[in-house]
Amino acid sequence: MDEAIRTDQASDAVDDETAYDASLKAFPTLLVKRLVYHLSFIYPRHDADDLTRQVLEAFWPADKRVLCRPQRRRLSAPPWSERDAILITYGNSLQDYEHPPLHILDDFLTRHLGSVINSVHVLPFFPWTSDDGFAIVDFTRVHSELGTWADMRRIAGHHKLMADLVLNHVSALHPWFVQFRQGQEPGCNYFRTVEPGTDVSEVVRPRPQPLLQAFETAEGEKHVWCTFSRDQVDMNFANPDVLIEFVRIIRLFMDQGVRTVRLDAVAFIWKEIGTKCVHLPQTHEIVRLMRTLADYSREAMVIITETNVPNRENISYFGASNEAHAVYNFALPPLALHALTTGDARQLTLWQRHQPPAPAGSFYFNFTASHDGIGVRAAEGYLTDDQVAEMIAAVSAVGGQVSMRAMSDGSERPYEINVSLWDAMKAGPGGHAFRFERFMVNQTIQMALEGIPGIYIHSLLATPNDEERMERTGTKRALNRHIWDYRDLEDRLSQPDSDQSKVFAEMKRRLAIRTRQPAFHPNATQMTLDLGPGLFSLWRQSRDRTQSIHAIHSVSNEVQTVELNRLNLIMDEPVLDLLSGRRYAESDETIELAPYQCVWLANRRG
């Protein structure tokens, strides 16, 4: 039996006669049973009832118990729809150097975007020491250079707010790690140490730096587990107190208006020597525990996992509708990039034909660019090493870079391509002349796919590579982490012929069309169509079966012809291209797509 299904059934099968103490009886019995099961599995040598009490008190303290639902949220009533799209941005991606950056972001969201994008993922906004925010010093404060919690709550008042729970590691200057080095409670037991010489060669590594880093402590030198860098020291989730700390942080997030919690690098949180230390059963059980808390919360809490790994491993975090509500669709960025740099969508189509629909109560988070690079691991099994190398060469020719990861034999392999998507779209058949059209195909594909689109701010704004920032920081990812002067940006947006104005206007137009189509509900039916190597094509149908859309996207610089009898069009119903407004008659036998054209053929407007 599938592990996720077995676990979920077992959590419901705990003896109904189990006697819980009075503090647990204040909560729904099934909730308590589920938490006891999760915690018994994760920490078999600890008192599961006591840990359950601590989790409940951390997430629903006495003054928050009214926020605990008496029953789980129904899978059939998810808090998302076709109106959802998520902007991905740093808190300081826009600055005028006079006002707090979060004030500027608030202005951009309300004055320039409105409801076209109704959600925002503000990348780590806490005090930090490195990795552009992902080495956090204090989860309880907003970085003073960005603004305050009041600013975050203001944004949450008009846009659904997503925040990062960076739970695998903290900054080496976090008070917990300072306590660890000084031998003080509680931090002295919060980090994983390993004896020098221990064989850790099987551990999956996303970075080429040494896994174990030596630190001087009050008890002498200790070697600490650091998956990503020396300044990002890994937490020891084998200590249940660490889990309780992060449950408290989630409660803080909820209190400040966050509704979507992104579990950053969650695949690595549980370590066992002799294993790959990725996707271990305890990791999945911790995600299930967080899903249980979300399902019993009156707040519309959504859990999304960030696991940049091969596709099959990535989607395992859906579980059996009992783990993440959403997973990042990590295979999409490299496969879409490959299709557009080669003019051949066959591998993109093959992947999507193999991709299962999201389970009930779940969705795919579709993105083609983000603050990180375009990861290539998720394309394993779909792109050969030669195809990856050719794609890297094409993007390198337009200013892109490549970051590597360490292998167990000491070698290195490509991990991600670092580039602004706007500049990456210079590459491909037809060259620079089709940059805008190629870029819009890339963005339109993610809008049409089953799931919710995540739009990186530098895609929305056609931001080019920031080579100066990369050189200054020595970080390849900085290429795609430009900081806009807000006044300069607004000036460019006011100029109809600027790249920023053209892309921003067309992105808003297509997103506005998308939000009105029930066939683009994140869980609407999807079928992948094979209409030829130059086309990536989908059929979507609304959940009530009243609207159908054939979303056809040309990845070629040549005219593509589609025979209408190859589409499952409904006889005697009109065919309307939602993007151009053109209508097709029953007498039309074919449709011709211009180079890099997209059509959304619908039987009716939404």
UniProtKB/TrEMBL annotation:
State if Metal-binding is listed as a keyword: no
The protein's superkingdom reads Bacteria
InterPro entries in UniProt: GGa_phosphorylase, GH, GH13_cat_dom, Glyco_hydro_b, O16G_dom_2, Sucrose_GGa_phosphorylase-rel
GO biological process assignments: carbohydrate metabolic process
The entry's keywords: Glycosyltransferase, Transferase
Binding, substrate:
131, 169, 262-264, 371-372, 477
**Molecular-function annotations in GO:** glycosyltransferase activity
- Name all Glycosyl hydrolase family 13 catalytic domain ranges: 103-514
Q: Per UniProt, what is one Pfam family of this protein?
A: Alpha-amylase
**What's the name of the protein?**
Alpha-amylase
Give the species this sequence originates from: Notoacmeibacter marinus
Q: What is the lineage of its organism?
A: Bacteria, Pseudomonadati, Pseudomonadota, Alphaproteobacteria, Hyphomicrobiales
